[in-house]
Every structure is written in C-alpha cells, then in structure tokens.
Amino acid sequence: MLLPGNVGERLDFLEGNVACAEGALAAGCKFFAFYPITPAREIGQVMASKMPKVGGISIQMEDEIASISSVIGASWAGLKSMTATSGPGFSLMQESIGYAVQTETPCVIVDVQRGGPGVGQVGVPLQGDVIQSRHGAHGEYPIVVLAPSSPQDMFDYTFEAFNLSEALRTPVILLTDAYVSFMRESVVIRSEEDIRITNRKKPEKSGETSFFLSEDVAPMPAFGTGYRVHVTGSCHDERGYRKISDPEDLDHLIRRIYRKFEKRLNEIVRLQMFQVEDAKIVLLTYGSPVRSALWALKKAREEGIMLGCVRLVSIWPFAKQEIAKIAEQVDKIIVLENNMGQILDYVRSAACGMAEIRFLPPQILGRVHNPKHVLEVIRREASL
C-alpha cells in the first residue's frame, strides 16, 4: 500500500523478522550468510528469496561459524554483509566477531534472543544475551548494539545498523528477541528519497599500501581492486602487519579503535525519554519490555503519579552520562528486563547513589512483563 503524499513510500503489515530483512535490503546489503535457527529463521527465508532480485548473494552455510566468517570475507570483497542467528549460534560466532572488531570489518549481526543457557527453549524469548553482546569475545574492544522493540524498529534499526557499521568500520549487533521478531504490525517501508545511506570510505589513490594510518576511521580497500591489502586478526601496525611482542603496539591499536567510538558517542548512544522532565520515578528499559513500560506510564500519569520512562535504543556503548543526569533529578529508577538483571549493575554504576535503583523482572522469565503488574509496582513505589 502506497502512502499518500510520499512517493515510493509504502505501508506493509509485517512480522518483525521480515521487517529486519527489508531494512537490510534497503540499506544495500548484498551478502547474507545464515544457518537456520529458530526464532531467526524467517530473516533467512526472506533474504534467500529477495537477494537474487537485487543482485545480491544469500547462502545457507553449514554452521554459524562459517556464516560469520563468510560475512567477514564478503565485506573485505566490498559488499555490505549480514548474518542472523539466535543465542546458541551467537555463542559460536564470538571469536569471529572479535576478529571483525580487530580487523575493523563492517558487518551486521542479528541475534534473535531465546531462552538459555545451552540450547535453551526455542520458543521462549529471553533477554539473556545482553552482556554477551558486549563482552562475548575475548580482549578489550568497543561495540555497537541496538535494541528494537517493534517491527518498525526492526526495519529502521537494521538499516541504521548498516549505516553505523559502514561509518565506523565495525561490526554492529541488532539485539532483538522472539517477541519482537514474531510480532506483526504496520511498518512504513521508507522511499529512497527519505533514506540516508552511509557507505564506507574508500582509498583515493590506486595502489595505496596502507589503510590503518588514520587516527579516525581509515578508508577500506576491497580485495581485487588494485590495492595492497593485508588483514590479520593479530595485533598489527598501520600497514596491517603483525606486531606480536610489544605492548605499545597493542596499546596504540586498542586506543585508536576506542577513540573512533569516543569521537562519535553523540551519534552512537541513543535513548528516548518520555515525560522525564518532572518525574520522581523513572522506568528504564529496552527491547520488548518497552511496550509494557509505556502502557504503565500512561496509566500512572492518569492517576497523578509523576512517572517517566527511559528507553535505551542503543544498549552499548552504555549511556552512562545520560543515566547519571537522570539519576540527579529523580528519586527512583526501576529497571525492567526480561532476565535476571543484565543491564542493572550498569545503571547502578551510572547512578552512583544519586537515585534509588530497583529491579523489575517479569513475573515469569520468558514472558512479557504484565503491564498491570508493572503499574502495581509503580503505585507501591510511589507510596513509599
């Protein structure tokens, strides 16, 4: 269905996973590698169907390790690349995600979370991979993680994940769960005129030998295009060659990668605030619990309770400074997560004792927060 007044923009009724695939296609994804896993399977099905129509490649790999490895290779061949998985597959990908960070390889990884640990329960959503998305690979590194809460977000944030990945030359993770991925809602598929696509910076000189010289984001040559390209997951110098014994080389590499994030924190760190200006209590959440929090916010305000809501759009890098400012002006922050409290201690650290921090998991792990229960907790906290 075309929207009136918006040339090329259309309105569809889509499942979250399908909207994710549409967002990747809109961003210019040309390579998708996937090992089928519930609840991410539909992303692979749509990509397999539509990638050939846009001149792209979709491959079903033998496992998740092969999937992420081929995505990295395709990115170095010059293609925007993505894979999708769930918790067990995400665990298998961690070493290669670390490799992508070290080699500054742009790519997008979608993790549709399900119950765990181990194989877990395929049909039970759980926000159990939050810490793993930040610290899953060994070593010291920054990473970008976005958390959608609706099918519209699945389109928009997949698209934005590609933009951030290309701009920063880094892997970006879209961290969703089965609630959001299986949800069906109206999704606006934006037209080309309304979309800002970011592409990686390429070298200007043919035959250029170095691509790590920049203190910021270096241009990225593609294999087979006339450049001398050397890529290694080991510590390396500005030419990409291994440096294996001097701590100063490692220090230089890690700090440079961190600096490119720090310079762009205002672009990367994103959160939405609802009626926080005069709030005494704030609900802080991300992903699927956002919807329960916003319902509770509406009802609490109708009852005269000075409640606000903060939604983390980007989970990592963590919005430490922003949360600290909120903690200065409110009495309590209630953290909603569908887990045992993975973001909770980061909120406590940012608040630094300026506000009381409470934790509110769902009544049963793996089920969406009951909005009425959230409201009951708010009423109780407001009366204390």
* Overall body shape: globular
The biggest beta sheet reads: 7 strands, mixed
Low-confidence stretches: 1-5
Spatial separation of the terminal alpha carbons: 51 Å
Total domain units: 2
Look at the structure and give the mean pLDDT.
93
Strand order of the largest sheet: 3-2-4-5-7-6-12
Q: Give the helix/strand class.
A: alpha/beta
Strand content of the residues, in percent? 15-25%
Order of H and E elements = EHEHEHEHEHEHEHEHHEEHEEHEHEH
CATH class of the largest domain: Alpha Beta
Q: What attributes does this structure have?
A:
384 residues, Rossmann fold, 2 domains, seven-stranded mixed sheet, five-stranded mixed sheet, 13 helices, 38% helix, globular
Description:
This protein has 384 residues and is α/β, with parallel strands linked by helices. The protein folds into two domains: 10-194, Thiamin diphosphate (ThDP)-binding fold, Pyr/PP domains (Rossmann fold, 3-Layer(aba) Sandwich); 271-383, Rossmann fold. 38% of the residues lie in helices and 18% in strands. The protein is built from 13 helices and 14 strands. It has helices at residues 16-27, 41-50, 64-76, 87-102, 130-135, 151-168, 178-182, 247-262, 265-268, 289-302, 320-329, 344-351, 371-383, and strands at 10-15, 31-34, 57-60, 81-85, 107-113, 144-146, 171-177, 184-189, 271-274, 281-285, 307-312, 314-316, 332-336, 356-360. Strands 3-2-4-5-7-6-12 form a seven-stranded mixed β-sheet, with helices on both faces. The relative contact order is 0.12. Mean pLDDT is 93; it is low at 1-5.
